[in-house]
Amino acid sequence: MEQAFVYIIFSAKWDQYYIGLTENIEARVEYHNAGKNKSTRGGAPWKLVYREEFDDATSARKREYQIKAKKRRKYIQWFLSANRYGAFREAMTYHVNL
User: Fold this and answer.
1) How does pLDDT run across 72-95, given as a tens digit for each residue?
2) pTM for the complete prediction?
3) Of 25, 37, 54, 58, which sits with the fewest C-beta atoms within 10 Å of its C-beta?
4) What does the alpha-carbon distance between residue 40 and residue 3 come to, in Å, rounded to a whole number?
């Protein structure tokens, strides 16, 4: 895996966020919306609300775990809000060199 993304999707139906890692954002969101993921099945439609791009899967996985470690709803909402008005906007790519 060369390029990797950490992403956050949101289900209005469940009022819930899901954090994941993928090589292909568009295909992965479609996968979630098709009900092919056990954890997100039934919550469709899922909307991509955040993504971060990495040069390699190892760096992306570290970031995914960092976000998941603080997987409280208030933290995720703060994180999305802070990033929406910071250096990047909702669902736009932020390139990280770790």
Assistant:
1) 777 888 888 877 654 444 344 444
2) 0.76
3) 58
4) 24
